[in-house]
């Protein structure tokens, strides 16, 4: 949780005009999905045709099916929710640019 918040703070400090943060997570990583939802991220698309590499019992890597979720959080919400409407202050949205974190 602290790492995700630190990344959001970094994005807002370095690129104050960024409107949102995106992340990708495998649906089977239920703990991470719960955490991201708790922090305000919402699923915006699902790729149920994705594949990932997993180790086999023999130590080799094997390509297996997985489901990838793309989650998004509006960054202005994490600093000052009123800045969206009244402008100014840290976290104000000044453009439609967005940031992707993987």
Task: Please provide a written account of the structure.
The protein is α+β, with helices and mostly antiparallel strands and 102 residues long. It has helices at 2-14, 30-38, 76-79, 83-86, and strands at 20-26, 42-55, 61-74, 99-100. The chain is built from 4 helices and 4 strands; from the N terminus they run H-E-H-E-E-H-H-E. Strands 2-3-1-4 form a 4-stranded mixed β-sheet. It is elongated, with a radius of gyration of 16 Å.
Category by helix and strand content: alpha+beta
Query: What is the percentage of strand-forming residues?
Result: 35-45%
How far apart the termini lie comes to 15 Å
Order of helices and strands: HEHEEHHE
- Which regions are unreliable across 5 or more consecutive residues at pLDDT < 50? 88-96
User: Considering DSSP H and I runs of 4 or more, what fraction of the residues is helical?
Assistant: 25-40%
Per DSSP, the total helix count is 4
Overall shape: it is elongated
Total number of beta strands: 4
**What Rg is obtained from the alpha carbons, in whole angstroms?**
16 Å
Largest sheet: 4 strands, mixed
Mean pLDDT: 82
- Spatial order of the strands in the main sheet? 2-3-1-4
